[in-house]
Amino acid sequence: MSTSIDRLPSTRARRVSSTRRAQNRAAFFFLLPGCALFALCVIYPIISSISLSFYNWDGMTPKTFIGLGNYIELFQSDTFYVALKNNLIWLVVFLLAPPFGLVFALYLNQQIKGMRVVKSLFFAPFVLSGVVVGLVFSWFYDPAFGLLKEIVGHGIPVLGDAHTVTFGIVFAALWPQTPYCMVLYLTGLTSINPEVIEAGRMEGAKGWKLLWHVILPQLRPATFMAVVLTVIGALRSFDLIAVMSGGGPFDSSTVLAYYMYDQAIKYYREGYSAAIAVVLFAIMLVYIVFHLRRMLREER
Questions:
Q1: CA-CA distance, 300 to 296, in Å (whole number)?
Q2: Rounded Cα distance, 235 and 27, in Å
Q3: Record's Gene Ontology CC terms (predicted)?
Q4: Kind plus residue range of the DSSP H or E element containing 289
Q5: What is the mean pLDDT of residues 186-213?
Q6: How far apart are CA 153 and CA 137, in angstroms?
Q7: What is the pTM of this model?
Q8: Is the domain defined by 79-299 classed in CATH 1.10.3720.10?
């Protein structure tokens, strides 16, 4: 009798272990296609770009290994530091999108008749392509017939002045980026527990205090996504620069992404372009890892 009772736990353990093995096997096969696609479309291009950055290659003739030659030339180039400075300007000004998006989201998160139409109008700029946004703002800034001339009273060569061209393009980019952050915050506001807000009001929290101490802590995931995607968008900015200024005048509005394209497509310097891509990837990686570690620390 005791022998049959002793066998029950071991039989149960074998069944549990076999079930776990089956679950792990199923999870592996479900994850395999996604992991293979990620490795093919993300990991392999990253490794290829890093490898290519050590070569001199025009895309047609055989590659020539030059070691750190591309990186040495890159860090001695004045255009690289201009592009880096413009990326920093993009980063600082572009970070206005999350707070603006939060303000619009708080305004639109009201149960008022016709608010859905207003939300659609606010979201409309985000669905426009970068080329369309660039053309619209190029016409807006045009010193001969642009709307800015009509508002100010005289023409201002925003895109023709090396001191203002970068700021003009960044403000154009804020137009579609702000609605994107607004949608992220609107999604976060729908998941807020109304009982927590009521409890805060009963404790005397109103206005700014209610927003800072009750609402914003519950919007941390939305804030994280808005900030990270805005920073990545600022660092990889390309389309508006290509449409509105072409990196000019005299490379004054170029950024790392456009500088990379310029060297690869116009001058057939694939290895040098890959070195720029690696530097840009390293900058993004440092920021994302720092932000992820900070968010995980706060959650713990």
A1: 6
A2: 36
A3: plasma membrane
A4: helix 270-299
A5: 75
A6: 18
A7: 0.82
A8: yes
